[in-house]
Amino acid sequence: MFNRTRQHFKQLKRSLAGSSVHTNQQDLTQAETKIVEQIRITTEAKNLNNITRTQAYFDFYKDHPEIHWALLAHLVSRNAGWNMTDLKGEYLPKLLTNQEQVDFFSFLERGNWLIFQDAYPQLLLYAESKKQNSPLFHLLSPLKISKFMKPFWENMWTEQQNKELTTALIINEQHYIEDRVIQNPVYKHSVLNTSLFKLQEFLSFNHILFPYRTTVQKKMKLVGGTVHHFSSVEDRINFGKSLYDLLFSVQTRLKQTIDWALHQPHSGSRKDYWPDLFNDIKESAPDQVHELQSSPCSLQTSKQRIYSPSLRSSWNDWKHSVAEPGDWCHNHKMLHFIKKPAVPLDDTIEKNYCATIEELEMAAFAKNKWFHKK
Predict the structure, then answer these.
(1) How many domains does the chain have?
(2) Angle, to 10 degrees, between the axis of helix 68-86 and the axis of helix 233-249?
(3) CA-to-CA distance for 137 and 122, rounded, in angstroms?
(4) Which stretch of DSSP H or E encloses residue 142?
(5) Beta 207-213 vs 220-226: how paired, if at all?
(6) Residue 41 φ/ψ, nearest 5 degrees
(7) Do residues 177 and 115 make contact, with C-beta atoms less than 8 angstroms apart?
(8) Which backbone phi and psi does 90 adopt, to 5 degrees?
(9) Is residue 197 part of a domain?
């Protein structure tokens, strides 16, 4: 087994070295050109906003459940939408200026948009390969996909290496946004280097929640995790691997998560998974700070629910500039993430998220009281 694994990674290294030769658009046949153009058109149509992206991932997974990453991307994208609407929800508008809300939204939206416009063409190319019963992964290059991904899609085609492919897609997406978003001077100035972002745990932007409904008790539960060093690409990759391991580790819970997603369309409101605590209609007065009647984790219906609006009522579709060109992959160093096992996540996310809600309430209450005194 060890020798096979060692040989496998030697082959991956050779494949990456051989992928430096790109397939140019002019070298394509007429049929191949048509495939590439249709993939670009479909991707652009599905990349309007967080709602359309999130649904596109899930629709793909339903048709191709062997591509585990599509389900992981769907659930993580739901979380991105919830973070976007939090900016217009009950508490954060009392803690952030209007410009800060826009800056944070722009940061979240850009990352969500970039990952989709890079990853979704790969999914569509795989679907077309299945349709034609022939691998078409030489077309990854004309689609401007990193050379890193080609050997993994080829291995998926020949050996059904779904876990390896998922890890490769996690590595690729996090490197893809590293220079374009995380190290981008605009976002570093307006978001990442701000004191507010350094309090991101407090703002709940680093919690990823996977909701599911238990079969017997019909009770909503949450699993997930928290990334503590968002600016570190290695930490984000390891966190993504841990989320994947968590999502697919328990088959009964996986089925319950999929069933919940099937029956609960993504709106961007946290009401989608916690209607006893959140509502997409504001129940408190404009100058009033919502006060919890009990701990959020009690799941008791409060007199006033926390305002969590839908995405479409919170933000207009964002006009994006074209993705910055370039391939992040210059060597095979990132292959060690394929071999490295995922670190298990603990089961405290629900408790941690409830504590975050209570902290947000207290901060909003304190700032509102201070502001009115001034």
Answers:
(1) 1
(2) 110
(3) 9
(4) none
(5) antiparallel
(6) -65, -45
(7) yes
(8) -70, -45
(9) yes
Residue 206 structure tokens: 């680093």
Report the residue count for the chain.
374
pLDDT in tens, 117-139: 999 999 999 999 999 999 999 99
Q: How far is CA 261 from CA 79, 190, 350, in A?
A: 13, 34, 18
Token pair recorded at residue 256: 């319950």
Distance CA 273, CA 252 (A): 18
Structural domain contains residue 359:
yes
Structure confidence by residue, pLDDT tens digits, 193-225: 775 665 555 555 689 999 999 988 788 999 999
Q: 0.90 exceeded by the pTM?
A: yes
Distance between CA atoms of residues 224 and 201, nearest Å: 14
Q: Which residues of the chain have pLDDT under 70?
A: 1-4, 19-26, 195-205, 299-302, 368-374
The residue behind tokens 């992959």 is 329
Domain that holds residue 260: 8-16+25-373
For residue 245, CA distances in Å to 9, 68, 69, 88 come to 21, 11, 11, 32
CA distance 95 to 89: 11
Residue 32 to residue 28: CA distance in whole angstroms: 6
**Residues 57, 73: contact at Cβ < 8 Å?**
yes
Contact 361, 91 (CB under 8 A): yes
Six-digit token string for 12: 């991956």
The answer to the question of residue 47 being in a domain is: yes
Q: Are 8 and 154 in contact (CB under 8 A)?
A: no
**Phi-psi domain of 188 (left: phi exceeds 0; alpha: psi -120 through 50; beta: other):** alpha
145 within domain boundaries: yes
Q: Which residues contact 115 (CB under 8 A, 6 or more apart)?
A: 73, 173, 176, 177
Residue labelled with tokens 């409101």: 269
Q: Which amino acid is at 330?
A: H
Give the position of tokens 């897609």: 169
Cα separation of 175 and 185, whole Å?
16
The DSSP result for 310-361, as a single string, is -HHHH-PPPPPPPPPP-----SSGGGHHHHSPPPPP-S-HHHHHHHHHHHHH
Tokens for 207? 């919690």
- Residue 225 tokens, joined: 């995790």
Give the list of residues 6+ apart from residue 63 with CB closer than 8 angstroms, or none: 127
